[in-house]
Amino acid sequence: ARELAGYLAALAGWVAALAAAVLPQWRQSSYAGDAIITAVGLHEGLWMSCAAQSTGQVQCRLHDSLLSLEVHIQTCRALMVISLLLGFFGIIVSVVGMKCTKVGEEDPVTKSRIAVAGGVLFILSGLCTLAAVSLYATQVTYEFFRESTIPINARYEFGSALFMGWGAASLSMLGGSLLCCSCPAKERRGQQYHQQSQPSTAREYV
Q: Which residue spans traverse the membrane (predicted)?
């Protein structure tokens, strides 16, 4: 039950990280300061920027150049891609190592080790997601509070994808930690004791 709960939590974290990486709401236009009503709301993400009009029409444009992007966006892109890859491999490895699956039932010690390896992959995936989201949030905060001629209501603040990323990182690390609790040491000691006790019992009967 603990392994299954950890796997489901980590799987939900990976799906949330995938959604956060794709969504363009990493930062959005701020409405702080003087009350100025604008008909267009701006959103920017790792891959595209969107403009939502008051009529409900949304227009999005992919970032044209990779090398012209700011360093923190390129870094966050790389971290999110690494996070998704680690989570994908964690999903596959954890399925093989979980006790509720029938793959490798003849060797429970190795099976538990595989489950622990899957948990480690999920933890690393969550750490990459956490690093990417926190780095982007730090840059948004710095640009919002720095002294600039841009009015405060024309700056950017946190978008919904950042909060989704923080939740995804928490779920991935929680699920990975639960999977890492599948420690094979006790099972190994139990097998060794069972193997050592069988010959002695046989001699007594002889």
A: 71-93, 114-138, 158-181
